[in-house]
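Schema walk-through. Below, the input block comes first and the output block second. Nothing else is stored per chain. Lengths vary across the set, and this one has 101 residues.
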Amino acid sequence: MTMLTTQNLVILLVGLADGEFDFQLKDVTIVIDGYTRFSAEEELFIESIQDRVARFVIGTYSDDNSLTAGSETIYISTSQMIGRFRSKFPVELRKMAFSLS
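--- output ---
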């Protein structure tokens, strides 16, 4: 497994910006599930690739209270991520129902 170094990330981001991977990515769906704390580099990668793929999905859990201003729940990092991403990307929130029965 090769580690993604800062130099490799820069090369990848330049290639994305130049459209080098557009053909390969046009039908790709990227799913990140259960992760809410992204580094600056990871957010830059998301910003660079999200509009070049068919779909970009981040699945996470939150409750209704955590999405209101001033909420202090265990899902605060999810709420903060959603707030940051709403200001940068087209965000579509979807509620998923589940049952424990």
